[in-house]
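Supplementary Text 2. Reproducibility record for the structural model of the 159-residue chain.

All settings were left at their defaults, and a single model was retained for analysis rather than an ensemble. We include the record here because the model underlies the residue-level annotations in Supplementary Table 4.
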Amino acid sequence: MTFPHRSISRPPNRGIRRVVSRLTLLTAALLAACTPVEPAAPAEATDESAPSPETAVLEGLIVFGPLQPVVKKDEPTPEIPPEAYEGRMVLVYLAGGETLLTEAAVQPDGSYRIELEPGEYVIDFTLAGIERSESVPAEVSLEAGEVMELDISVDTGIR
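Retained model, structure tokens:
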């Protein structure tokens, strides 16, 4: 390599660059190690299923079946695919079942969770095609602070 301001051609001194680079990294590491760190506050244990004292929680699992026409003894039971829950809603009506209060999407694992004010409700589920369910509509009565489980079985109509 030729340097225009010098009459001698020689390679740059890479050894000094390596030393400077290593010293810079070492200095940064030492500064990071010497910086005081505040201890983390202990995490509070929370129970996600617990409602606030003024509300109640309705939660459960949606189960579809049968998933195939013939279930053989030696074959494993097929799992419900997450797509089966896409667009499915748990519907909450005011007592009497006439007025829709809210709806909650069903999670890909089939679970749902709804926080509600204490009161009387009618719970339903969006069925499709020839599906039917004896689990819904269901009348529920929720009290403040209560967690109620309502699982919904859906008959797919496959025979």
